[in-house]
Amino acid sequence: MRGLTRRLVAVATLAAVGATVAATPAQATGKSYVKVGYFTQWGIYGRDFQLSKVQSSGAAARLTHLNYAFGPVTAEGVCASADAWADWQTPFDDAHSVDGVGDVAGQPIAGNLNQLAELKKKNPQLRVLISLGGWTGSAYFSDAALTDASRKKLVSSCVDLWIKGNLPGLPEGVAAGIFDGVDLDWEWPGSEGNAGNIVRPEDKRNFTLLTAEFRAQLDKLSRSTKRKYDLTAFLPAAPAKIEAGFEGDKIFKYLDFATVQGYDFHGTWESRTNQQSALFVPRGAPDNPDFSVDVAINAWIKAGAPRRELVLGLPYYSQGWTGVSGGGDGLFQPATGPAPGVFAAGVEDYKTVKTLPGFTLHRDLRAGHAWLFDGTTFWTYDDPAQMLQKALYIRAKGLGGAMMWSLDGDDGNASLTRAISAGLR
Prior knowledge:
Layout: H1 2-16, H2 25-28, E1 34-40, H3 51-56, E2 65-71, H4 84-89, H5 111-122, E3 127-133, H6 141-144, H7 148-163, E4 181-185, H8 203-225, E5 230-235, H9 239-245, E6 257-260, H10 293-302, E7 310-315, E8 317-322, E9 337-338, E10 347-349, H11 350-353, E11 360-364, E12 369-373, E13 378-381, H12 384-397, E14 401-405, H13 415-423
Parallel strand pairs: 1-2, 1-14, 2-3, 3-4, 4-5, 5-6, 6-7, 7-14
Antiparallel strand pairs: 8-9, 8-10, 8-13, 11-12, 12-13
């Protein structure tokens, strides 16, 4: 790890002053990286973030995959829309439409799904996946995955709704061809997630069986449509959650790749400032064992995951504490609570944090993380320089690419996405 750390520090130092990442042998071999951005269904409301901004900012041209979040699994064990108005009903005017032409009454389909279709027309390289579950939509995954019959029921409903495009109340197949596959965001099989989630010890085996059923039904559909469908999954960083819920040596038989949570290692549920997305555990960290990107990736490799099919998740938001005491640069210091945020206490978008006045930027290039501190308030911080350093880690570690949660946190120039794309050419 020392050699890898030295290389990351060297390149990150250049990145911090605006230099370009040097070419590496991985580029010379023609290896391609996936670049996955999450678009949140609800972002069109309070956040005022439409798919037109993914296009106009230049982000879409730099992605290989866009995951549309989320489609829940219901108590009846089937796929459904969490918000049909956002998904296929709400009209977009000229200014908010990807192609610049507003929706009109009577067209076959509107909403985000129609905008996804427009985005794909402008970006033929882009593959769009429906992301199932998420933090608040995973309550019934365990029930739906419990038996062979329940798995077949769930998967067939998901394929019918999202892949075949049979939306309720609309003509058959109206949304066919919009989604190129499925992303499984079961948070988490075999261990605690959101309060009220159903959890069983059998989830570990059943997750594998569920991926197998998705793969089988998607491949069957491929034989008739002559189209390839992707199957991916979102995976936890904590070694205990990996052990409790995933057969790492088996699930990749069915997955095209999987994204690993590279953030939320620490946050304002704790009363002490810390890093949320460091590459390596920082010197002086108060927790042992501790979380980091390298800890998570190594745990998955140990569990049997192929390196090339692991995609590192990167945060487009910060975790923040206020009432920080203890002096110094603010790291690892006690705090009275979460810092105020626009949409939630203790959490703020990169685009907002980067413009906060009165803060000093601190970097730990060896550990691969940064933070902002004004003497009272502390924000974790992933800026373009940190993204370049993480891109180098992905390359040096032999991973498959990067995932971004979520695109609405970036600035209007897609600065974070551009940095990741530059580092993973």
